[in-house]
């Protein structure tokens, strides 16, 4: 029988090496007497998100032997502030929200929602208008009304702003900009003719198509991004390494099939599972943030 190098090392030193097992993780206590808080950014309407994440919170509570309180924040920025002020312990972020929270609050990515292939879900951003506006390219947006979703949104602000900048426009001052608050609200603004153009991500398109509210002929796509990785679940800086490991183990076994993901920017599919994720996966997003006047690079 072959002896592992770790076992040989332990026997050579006449010490007992005990790996961290599931039973050992069970002994790791809840970090707060009243449990932990799991924040979710409002990327969809709250009444859609709340039942899905309440069920996930219940699963986590059972696996962690620690109450998990789910909180849908009022905005993307509110989730970042909740982490910075120590009011929440883990959160589901978009890519931009995550790199901002990593810089401001020291949070760390640990998991990401994945498709049945085991790969992180991918989605796309776009800028659209209606045929009646007569706008045919990004340059034609100068002086026109435009809806972003949230200032801390990747597909709803950062990437469209970068596209506008690359087209020679100041993304904040050369258009009449408004922040709709959510991707759904930005879609409703363009759909109802309240603005001349808007951000529209592929997940919103897929959801609207599924309920008969999106017809491609009603819109002109002026720009579309390359695929964007799903944002991560991240943990607060103050959580102990032992509890982080216990949390990661619990997350890997949670049923997330009620969450819909874009599959490479196309149709939505049920999330298959959570898989481990690292901070480095979001370096591409981090490198773009100076476009919106935010430095999210690591360091003080």
From TrEMBL:
<dbReference type="InterPro" id="IPR005770">
    <property type="entry name" value="PhnD"/>
</dbReference>
<comment type="similarity">
    <text>Belongs to the phosphate/phosphite/phosphonate binding protein family.</text>
</comment>
<feature type="signal peptide">
    <location>
        <begin position="1"/>
        <end position="24"/>
    </location>
</feature>
<dbReference type="Pfam" id="PF12974">
    <property type="entry name" value="Phosphonate-bd"/>
</dbReference>
<protein>
    <submittedName>
        <fullName>Phosphate/phosphite/phosphonate ABC transporter substrate-binding protein</fullName>
    </submittedName>
</protein>
<keyword id="KW-0732">Signal</keyword>
């Amino acid at each position: 029988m072959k002896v592992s190098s770790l076992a040989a090392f332990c026997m050579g030193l006449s010490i007992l090496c005990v790996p961290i097992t599931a039973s050992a993780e069970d002994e790791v206590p809840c970090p707060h007497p009243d449990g932990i808080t799991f924040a979710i950014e409002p990327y969809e309407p709250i009444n859609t998100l709340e039942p899905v994440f309440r069920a996930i919170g219940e699963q986590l509570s059972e696996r962690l032997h620690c109450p998990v309180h789910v909180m849908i924040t009022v905005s993307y920025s509110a989730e970042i502030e909740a982490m910075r002020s120590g009011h929440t312990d883990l959160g589901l972020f978009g890519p931009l929200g995550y790199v901002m929270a990593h810089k401001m609050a020291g949070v760390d990515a640990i998991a990401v929602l994945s498709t049945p292939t085991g790969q992180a879900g991918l989605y796309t951003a776009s800028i659209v208008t209606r045929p009646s506006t007569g706008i045919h390219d990004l340059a034609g947006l100068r002086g026109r009304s435009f809806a972003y979703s949230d200032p801390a949104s990747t597909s709803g602000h950062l990437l469209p702003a970068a596209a506008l900048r690359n087209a020679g426009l100041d993304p904040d001052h050369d258009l009449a900009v408004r922040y709709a608050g959510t991707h759904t609200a930005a879609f409703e603004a363009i759909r109802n003719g309240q603005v001349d153009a808007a951000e529209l991500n592929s997940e919103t398109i897929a959801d609207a198509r599924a309920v008969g509210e999106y017809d491609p002929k009603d819109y002109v796509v002026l720009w579309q991004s390359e695929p964007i990785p799903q944002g991560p679940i991240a943990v607060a800086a103050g959580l102990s390494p032992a509890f982080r490991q216990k949390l990661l183990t619990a997350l890997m076994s949670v049923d997330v099939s009620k969450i819909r993901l874009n599959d490479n920017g196309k149709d939505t599919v049920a999330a298959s599972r959570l898989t481990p994720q690292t901070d480095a996966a979001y370096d591409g997003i981090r490198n773009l943030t100076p476009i919106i006047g935010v430095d999210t690079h690591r360091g003080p």
